[in-house]
Amino acid sequence: MNITPTSIEYQLADARLLAVDAHQHIRIDAPTPQALLAAIIDCWRRVHRRYPQHKINIALGVHGQVDPVTGVSQTMPQARWENACRTQILT
Fold it and tell me: Which InterPro entries match (predicted)?
């Protein structure tokens, strides 16, 4: 997934990184960090419903400026918000 506050692009691939479905580009409106995270979750759920028999792993590319020490996103130039958007990987 390639993520900005205005769009999510993704390409579903198998374990060999061969395309399983067509490239998708979804326009979103994320006025807050929480709205952005909700849009990511909604996108993942739609893909999972379409392919319920498969385990779906996500690789995220979230575009913003990141604090090099903490790894926390400081700002997203395209975003309407000023506060940080924290993402965590849960396995």
Answer: ATPase_NBD
